Amino acid sequence: MNPQRLAIFTNIIQAGTISAAAHKLGCGKSVVSRQLAQLENDLGARLIQRSTRQLALTEVGQLVLEEARQIERSLDKIAHLADSYQQQVRGLLRVSCSLAGRRVLVPLLAEFTALYPQVKVALQLDDAMVDLIAQQVDVAIRTSALVDSTLVARKLAESANVVCAAPSYLARCGTPCTPQELQQHACLLYAVGARVYDEWNFGEAGIFRVDGPLQMNDGGALVTAAAGGAGIIKVPLAIVADELASGQLVRILEDVVLPPGPATYAVYPAREFLPLKTAAFVEFLRERMGQNR
User: Fold this and answer.
1) Distance between CA 68 and CA 70 in Å, rounded?
2) Residue 109's pLDDT is what?
3) Nearest Cα to Cα of residue 232 among 246, 213, 245, 218
4) How far apart are CA 82 and CA 100, in angstroms?
5) Rounded to two decimals, what is the model's pTM?
6) How far apart are CA 249 and CA 227, in angstroms?
7) Scanning 66, 186, 246, 290, which has its CA 20 to 30 A from the CA of 224?
8) 64: nearest Cα among 29, 38, 40, 30
């Protein structure tokens, strides 16, 4: 059944005549008459008794009118809900982030939800590439290149790399003064599956293969292990900022210019009408993570 015909039917009753309804709707009288006749044909029942002077609802017509008005109220409510969500930052926001990225993101979530109390954030932590559409994710925080043309990527921050270790480790094993000396130290390595990231790039100084007692698929866990004195790590500055500030970790090889790490992006499905909650979250992250431009 065509809802437009129901709307025309209710307009006829409200206007009192087919001519008045046609004038209100901005179309020809014949169009309104034809749509009414088609509705009656669809239902297999006469809805209006016509005369030259007035229209009268049949019994069935009265029942259909009541339901049609209910449909109109529901459609108005749906339109109001959509408009409300576009005018207010509210609703459930599904966010995906890497395990290491949580060290930066999670403290910001408390600030965001305090700023927008009508938003609930559901955070999914996973180093695997997430299918945003299939898993209904609103925003993913990623450091990988964007290869899906159905997605939009907004840069949040550049990433500086640092090499650091706990004072207890350096007191026990000594402080390396050159990248070459790392090959005689316990280096803590990031690994995903069979892939071990054991080649550390020091730019003009070269690329050096390192080794150590621990391999982990969680950058945050590597930071915890390093802070406990297990060895040396090379990680983005953002995820060790607190440990460096507290003295749990100290920077080493500061004279060596390290290539920057991959930039951090907010990735979300390309949409004509981006939900206000998503737009607000992305702009919030851009401001807080230093890429507000």
Assistant:
1) 5
2) 92
3) 213
4) 36
5) 0.61
6) 6
7) 290
8) 40
Amino acid at 23: H
Reduce the secondary structure of the chain to three states and give it as a string: CCHHHHHHHHHHHHHCCHHHHHHHHCCCHHHHHHHHHHHHHHHCCCCEEECCCCEEECHHHHHHHHHHHHHHHHHHHHHHHHHHHHHCCCEEEEEEECCCCHHHHHHHHHHHHHHCCCEEEEEEECCCCCCCCCCCCCEEEECCCCCCCCEEEEEEEEECEEEEECHHHHHHHCCCCCHHHHHHCCECEEEECCEECCEEECHHHCEEECCCCCEECCHHHHHHHHHCCCCEEEEEHHHHHHHHHHCCCEEECCCCCCCCEEEEEEEEECCCCCCHHHHHHHHHHHHHCCCCC
Dig out the tokens for 44 from the structure.
């297999």
Residue 230 identity (one-letter amino acid):
A
Which residues make Cβ contacts (< 8 Å) with residue 154, sequence separation at least 6? 265, 266, 267, 282, 286
Total residues found in the chain within this entry: 293
Instruction: Enter the tokens of residue 222.
Output: 């590597």
At 242-293, the pLDDT tens digits run 899 999 999 999 999 888 877 888 999 876 678 889 999 999 999 888 743 3
